[in-house]
Amino acid sequence: MSAHAPYWIAVGDIHGHTAPLASIPELPGAAGVIVTGDMTIRGGVPEASAVLDAVAAINPRVLAQIGNMDKPPVQTWLDGRGQGIHARAVELAPGAGIMGVGWSPPTPFGTPAEAPETQIAQWLVEAYDQARGFGHLALISHTPPYGTLADVIGSGAHVGSPAVREFIERVQPEVCVTGHIHEARCTDRLGRTVIVNPGELAAGGYVLLRLGADGFTAELKTIGGGRP
Question: 214 Cβ partners below 8 Å, 6+ apart?
C-alpha cells in the first residue's frame, strides 16, 4: 500500500469470532479499523470489550458502533472511550471522514438494539450535521439500504432500511459500508454511492476503504483471497 493512499479496514458482524482478524493481511498497516456493528451475540460491555481488545492487539486505532445484536450500553461505553461512530461523524483525514448509524430496524427476533425507521432517520440527520463540511464522505450503516443487493435474505425478500436508502439517494456519500444481512455479501450502487456488504467476519469478508485524491473507494475482500 502506498503511504500516499491511506486505507482503513472495515469489518462487521463479528459476533465474538475474532480469530479471522489475524488473517487479514492489510490489518496491521491500516490507518485504523472500523467496526460496523454486531461485535457480539446479545452481549454487553465485557463481551464487546473482548472483541475490541482482539482488534486493538493488531491495530490500535479502532472506531466502532453497535449493531442490533449488541446491548445499547455498549454504545455509551464506546462513546465514553472516544471510539463511537453511531450518530456521529469522525474526520479521518483533512476534509474527509465517516459518519455512522448503528442498531437496526425492528426484526422478527427481538434483538437488543432495534429502533423504528423514524429514529434511524433522525440519527442520520444528527451524524450528517457533523459531516457536512467533509468534501469526501463514507457512510457506515449497520443496516443496509432497502431494495439493494445488500439487504436480500435467503427468501429473496428485501429487509433493509428505507431511511438509509433515502439518505443515500439524497446525500450521495461516496461509499456506504454496511452489514447485518450475512448472506447478502455484495458490491452494489445507488446513484454515485458504492455500497459494500462484506457479510460476517467468520465467513472471511472485510472491506478495504481507501482514501485517494478523488475520495473514498471501497473494495470487498475475502480472507485468503477467495472470491466473494
Answer: none
